[in-house]
């Protein structure tokens, strides 16, 4: 809602006849860039490795838990408490691993940011060049938060940006 209000305010101060507006589809650009595809492959490999490690940790916990459940009636109180503590520690390790790798500011997020940054900078530079060369006042991303209810194809500069990136 705030973005719409900002757009209305921006356009209300300038004559619409003087504006030249274009848009790009950043998802289409990213899907066609080889370096973006390479970055995604690297991320997928990292995710696979971490997921396998997580699965192994969870399998180990499950095996220990099932073993504990089978034997808990014959274990001494001290041994039961010891195994229960070990199981709780393993659960905490699994949770910590999951959070460190896949959490909101986890290693996956940081790695994605690291891999995407040079690609996004290159895309933004190409968009800026296209905008200047074609005298656009605004370039919007149709795959972002701003919703286009209608847009003429003639204002789609996605292909110009892709050409600039080649």
From TrEMBL:
Q: Name one GO biological process term.
A: protein stabilization
| Annotated signal peptide | 1-17
Query: What Pfam families has UniProt attached to this entry?
Result: OmpH
Where is it found, in Gene Ontology cellular component terms?
Answer: cytosol
Gene3D superfamilies reported in the protein's UniProt record:
Skp domain
Write out the GO MF terms: unfolded protein binding
- Keyword terms, alphabetized: Coiled coil, Signal
Q: Which portions of this protein are annotated as coiled-coil regions?
A: 33-100
Record SMART domains? OmpH
Family designation:
Belongs to the Skp family.
Task: State what protein this is by name.
Answer: Outer membrane chaperone Skp (OmpH)
Q: Which organism's genome codes for this protein?
A: Melioribacter roseus (strain DSM 23840 / JCM 17771 / VKM B-2668 / P3M-2)
